[in-house]
Amino acid sequence: xxxxxxxxxxxxxxxxxxxxxxxxxxxxxxxxxxxxxxxxxxxxxxxxxxxxxxxxxxxxxxxxxxxxxxxxxxxxxxxxxxxxxxxxxxxxxxxxxxxxxxxxxxxxxxxxxxxxxxxxxxxxxxxxxxxxxxxxxxxxxxxxxxxxxxxxxxxxxxxxxxxxxxxxxxxxxxxxxxxxxxxxxxxxxxxxxxxxxxxxxxxxxxxxx
Length: 209
What we know:
Elements: H1 2-10, H2 14-23, E1 36-37, E2 44-52, H3 59-67, E3 73-77, E4 85-87, H4 89-97, E5 102-109, H5 112-118, E6 122-127, E7 140-141, E8 145-147, E9 150-152, E10 157-161, E11 164-168, H6 173-195, H7 200-208
Parallel strand pairs: 2-3, 3-5, 4-5, 5-6
Antiparallel strand pairs: 1-6, 2-7, 2-10, 8-9, 10-11
């Protein structure tokens, strides 16, 4: 099922996806504006593997790594705590080795230079050198979580780019992707006309034809 949708989803910008979801009354479908890639150009696209922990408890990160499947995007709910990390270069190296699709952290990350060199996509609310704790208290996986302002269920589709992160409910993925493809194609036509010197109003009219 996802094998067909993921290449199509990966070709769509989060801005267009967010607009379509908002028009459908799915607002917010976008994580908090502080959720950004930790290195320029990083993107994620894949089904969510969820984990919940308390601030700075890296045990949940290791637990998620031990259970996630290739292509999964690990989504860590860490209560938005940004003064101790949930993820770094060691976890990123292990995740890339396992073929994971990326990591999204409602918390902080570190070792950014190493993660960038590795080419593993990580999104986080903040960056800090301060380490977390390995305490296993309250770590849970594959449950609905609250992450950066929205609810994420296991298997929801996660798409992240330079603008931020959107989450698409698995049951609506086909509809939203198809609708966004049409929406994005129209925006691309508008841009094409604008680059040719056509005024904005006329460009919008032509693109709608």
